[in-house]
Each structure stands twice: as structure tokens, then as C-alpha cells.
Amino acid sequence: MSSAGRDIAKAISHLNAGELVAIPTETVYGLAGNALDSTVVTKIFEAKQRPAFDPLIVHIPDPDKIQTYAVDIPQAAYDLADVFWPGPLTILLEKSQSISDLVTSGLSRVGLRCPDHELTLELLGYLSFPLAAPSANPFGYISPTTAEHVRRQLGNRVAYILDGGSCKVGIESTVVGFENEQAVIYRRGGIDRKSIARITGKTIEKIVSSNPAAPGQLTQHYAPRKPMRLGNLDELISEKGNRKVGLLLFEKSRGEQIEKILSPSGDVNEAARNLFAALRALDESEADIILAESVPEVGLGPAINDRLQRAAATSI
User: Fold this and answer.
1) Percent of the chain beyond pLDDT 70?
2) Which of 29, 78, 215, 262 has most Cβ atoms within 10 angstroms of its Cβ?
3) Are residues 154 and 264 in the same domain?
4) Domain assignment present for 217
């Protein structure tokens, strides 16, 4: 199994040698490698068993690096970076020649992000290259929010796990790009739509696609191995038959033997932090099927419900 720790020098050594390192961010743990080395990028796709048509996000240490890896940058992109970086926002921009088509799955735009985690920011500051880093899990499975999740999922497919503790946001970054000078949200995430619109003005959403234009757009994703259903719990429970259920609840217990409550206080931010760990616990429980309810559509609620819908879609 891969070793884990807080040794940045060790992480740098592995990355400079063309190996993969799991890195902590405020959203989820990423499976990172040199974004400018096509051989390393290929290793990322292979380690995750990720389809080549699903592009990767490139992580940079500060907003000043935008001009190194992107061209024709609209002012609104700089405005977003000034407000939300470091943070859970990926900005989709026309890529420079330094970014290979492999990273972007042949698309002309690259997703750039400056993550809000002190260990990873320090790591990026020492490197001479940016890091391509999708979530550090097998493709389509529940995203990891602790180093232990990574270790159990990827085993020896990663050279080292930089352990930064539990992720404080817990769901992936919001992905924003621009079409005809208008901001477009391609993936709901750690920054809600209203916060984006306060900077860019009116926004539109293009969330799901079988032919993704940005990371995180596939219809089926973030899924447990066990069957999962999302909807009215009374109805779902009545249809369970003899199967043992595990419940994923937003706020209130239903007194079931196997259940996980995302936020006893009714806080969607807390629910986001706990989402993937709760899903993972139910997937590893004795339940035969996972039944889930949606959370309120406020703040990060739409992003949480987006993950739940995609997880349940995989199980249909």
C-alpha cells in the first residue's frame, strides 16, 4: 500500500520523477502528476481507469499563472480568480500551447484552479510545473475526502499520499467558463451560483453531458457500488421488499438501524463536508440498498443534489 504523510519534500521528489502523488485540497483529494508531461498524464488516466474523453483540471499556485497556461482570457475570469482563488472554483479558458490535448481530451479549453489547502499550495510553489489532478478514486466511484480513502481505493497506484486531513468543503469545485462573453456553469460545486453571478452578472448552466465540454459533466458519477435510489423516502422504503436498507438523510433520523445524517443542525455546508464519507460508510455497511433524500436547494444544496442524482443514476 502507498505510504501517507505530510512530507512535502517526498511528494516533490516523486512528482519530479514522473510519479503520481495524491494531494489534499479543500474539495476532495486529487490524483496529481506533472500536467506538462504527456506520459505522466497518461498514468493518471490509467490509474483512475478514466475514459480519455473526460478532461482533467490543472492546479496552479496563484492567479498570476493564468497567463502561462491560458490565452484570450476575459476580464471576468480575472475577477473570479481575484475573489475566489484560492478556493473551490475551476475556470475554463482557452489553453496555451504548453497544455497538451491529452489533458483537455482534445478540447480547446483547459480548466485551471488554485486550491485552498496550505500543504498543496506550498507544494505547488516549489514545483516548476502545474499539477493535473482529478479526484483520487477509481473512475465513477465516490470521491475521497481523507488520505485513508485514497489509500484504500488506489493502493499502490499512487507513489505517495500527502495527508492534509479531512477536506473542509467536501464536494468538487464549481466549473465556470464563458460563451459569447456570458458566464456558464458547467459543474455545480463548492461555490454556489448566486456567488458567481455577483461577480459575472447573469449566468447559465450546462451541467450534464455524455460528451463533456468540461470536467465533471458525465451523467453517471460519484456512485457507490451498491444500488442507490433518490427520492421520497416513505415511497422508497415501501418498495424495498426484503432488502436491508441504509438511509442517507439530510437532518433528521428515522430510527433505522443503518443510517447516516449529513447535518443534524440542517446546515448544507456541513452536509457537503460529510456527503462522500457518509456515502462510503453506507456502501461499506451491511445494507443491500442505499436510499437517499435530497437536501434543501439553498447554498451548496444544488451541488449536493447534483452528486446524489448522478450517484443514483449509476445504480438504475
Assistant:
1) 95
2) 29
3) no
4) no
Q: In 3D, which of 133, 115, 101, 18 has the Cα closest to residue 65?
A: 115
Residue 186 belongs to what domain range?
A: 3-205
**8 A C-beta contact, residue 92 and residue 77:** no
C-alpha distances in Å from residue 157, one per residue of 7, 165, 291: 19, 20, 32
Residue ranges for the chain with pLDDT beneath 50: 316
For cell 449536493, what's the residue? 304
Q: Which residues of 145-169 are buried (b: 16+ CB within 10 A; e: fewer)?
A: bbbebbbebbeebbbbbbbbeebbb
196 and 232 fall within a common domain: no
Tell me, yes or no, whether 31 and 130 share the same domain. Answer: yes
**pTM for this predicted structure:** 0.91
Q: How far apart are CA 278 and CA 249, in angstroms?
A: 10
CB neighbourhood size of 50 (10 A): 20
pLDDT of residue 176: 97
pLDDT of residue 316: 47
What is the reported pLDDT for 211?
Answer: 60
Per the structure, how many domains does the chain have? 2
CA dihedral over 117, 123, 125, 129, signed as positive or negative: negative
3-state SS assignment for residue 255: coil
Q: Which residue's C-alpha cell is 490535448?
A: 101
Nine-digit cell string for 13: 521528489
The DSSP element (H or E) to which 193 belongs, if any, is: helix 193-200
Contact 268, 300 (CB under 8 A): yes
Pairing verdict, β 160-162 and 3-5: parallel
Residue 246 identity: G
Which cell numbers in the block locate residue 61?
Answer: 499556485
Answer yes or no: do 234 and 164 share one domain.
no
The pLDDT, as a whole number, for residue 240 is 83
* Element of type H or E holding 45: helix 38-48
User: CA 195 to CA 214: how far, in whole Å?
Assistant: 20
Q: What angle do CA 88, 91, 93 make, to 5 degrees?
A: 165
- Residues in contact with 138: Cβ distance below 8 Å, sequence separation at least 6, in sequence order: 48, 49, 153, 154
